[in-house]
Amino acid sequence: MKQVYLDNAATTPVRLEVEVAMRPYFCEKYGNPSGVYQMSSENRGMIENVREQIAKTLNASAEEIYFTSGGTESDNWAIKAAAQMLKEKGRHIITSKIEHHAILNSCAYLEKQGFEVTYLDVDEWGSIRLDILEKAIRKDTILISVMYANNEVGTIQKIAQIGKIAEKNDILFHTDAVQAYGQLLIDVKKENIDLLSASAHKFNGPKGVGFLYIRKKIPLPEYIHGGKQERNHRAGTENVPGIAGMGKAAEIAFTTREYREKEIQQLRDYLIRRLQRGIPYCRLNGSLTNRLPGNCNISFQFIEGNELLLLLDEKNICASAASACSTGDTSPSHVLTAMGIPEKLARGTLRLTIGYQNTQEEIDYTVQCIKEAVEKLRENAEDYRRYKETFPCNIM
Ligand code: PLP
């Protein structure tokens, strides 16, 4: 079997059409968009077309879209600049325990600057409880940042309701939509979203480019200082090929979204069914219904997820134990811990994320390899033998 890539939450392959759209901007149309000559103004035109096009996918307007280097930069900008802008009004921020480290570490930085951060608990499915969010709001709360969908377990949050709560309390609302944009329909107006981060490499675009949506009425200060690019808000020569590629990737993601969602979801449900039926002592993590279409996050008791990954790598299967950013980290995932998954079980976790390019044949091959690998790892597990003798049926 050729390589089976099931790590589409970490990054996605660039579509051929996207690569074709980017190509001219390397060696032919390489002009700096800030130049005065024709090649530059054409590139400026392309950038503005992509801005317009991305805005449409969110029900936003073009002047509300700012290009960045990706999700991490957009998250840093949103959180730190919002705190800076509103520090006279208050110094309390609400986020969740299951956010990406781009948010968690930005909040940790702000804590050192004298801000207070409440990290909301989640339930066993990875969902934030709205009553707990409402209770966490204080007079000095200036920002709520809750991710649209989680990168590890795929749980989709009740963003429209959170937006309503934020609006009712006159609090700025940011959502990290890096995993959701291109997969789910997002309407920033209906969902009362003030700030939204996205990244092209999660929807079959290139790496190192993304955007931050900033609602028009919000005077969010600039984050990177320098030239006048991005209407004085984000200095630095634009990533012209990257923006061209992101535009094409967004176009394809939205024109094919419905049918892709259906196909990917069917494949994901097939994968989950086969794993649950074929391998005892396993547990699906995350919500069954409010879940990203391609996400399967499953824990196998009595094994180490990192050992499983190595055996799968020998079979040419690319998967991950948690998020790509925590690879090499031996502590259990902060997301699974927040969901109350016991540490031992969390350590045996595998994240498989399906993309448009995956096939049923690949899933069948992967399930067979996982089955063999889990059996092999359990052969040496003393606690597995003891457990099986005491509880011979598959209850978890
Ligand atoms: N936020 C979430 C939810 C993510 O999954 C990621 C990437 O894994 C990021 C932010 C960071 O995005 P980027 O890789 O574009 O910096």
UniProtKB/TrEMBL annotation:
<keyword id="KW-0479">Metal-binding</keyword>
<dbReference type="Pfam" id="PF00266">
    <property type="entry name" value="Aminotran_5"/>
</dbReference>
<keyword id="KW-0663">Pyridoxal phosphate</keyword>
<keyword id="KW-0411">Iron-sulfur</keyword>
<dbReference type="InterPro" id="IPR000192">
    <property type="entry name" value="Aminotrans_V_dom"/>
</dbReference>
<feature type="domain" description="Aminotransferase class V">
    <location>
        <begin position="4"/>
        <end position="365"/>
    </location>
</feature>
<protein>
    <recommendedName>
        <fullName>cysteine desulfurase</fullName>
        <ecNumber>2.8.1.7</ecNumber>
    </recommendedName>
</protein>
<dbReference type="InterPro" id="IPR015421">
    <property type="entry name" value="PyrdxlP-dep_Trfase_major"/>
</dbReference>
<dbReference type="GO" id="GO:0051536">
    <property type="term" value="F:iron-sulfur cluster binding"/>
</dbReference>
<keyword id="KW-0808">Transferase</keyword>
<dbReference type="GO" id="GO:0046872">
    <property type="term" value="F:metal ion binding"/>
</dbReference>
<dbReference type="InterPro" id="IPR016454">
    <property type="entry name" value="Cysteine_dSase"/>
</dbReference>
<dbReference type="GO" id="GO:0031071">
    <property type="term" value="F:cysteine desulfurase activity"/>
</dbReference>
<dbReference type="InterPro" id="IPR020578">
    <property type="entry name" value="Aminotrans_V_PyrdxlP_BS"/>
</dbReference>
<comment type="similarity">
    <text>Belongs to the class-V pyridoxal-phosphate-dependent aminotransferase family. NifS/IscS subfamily.</text>
</comment>
<keyword id="KW-0408">Iron</keyword>
<dbReference type="InterPro" id="IPR015422">
    <property type="entry name" value="PyrdxlP-dep_Trfase_small"/>
</dbReference>
<dbReference type="InterPro" id="IPR015424">
    <property type="entry name" value="PyrdxlP-dep_Trfase"/>
</dbReference>
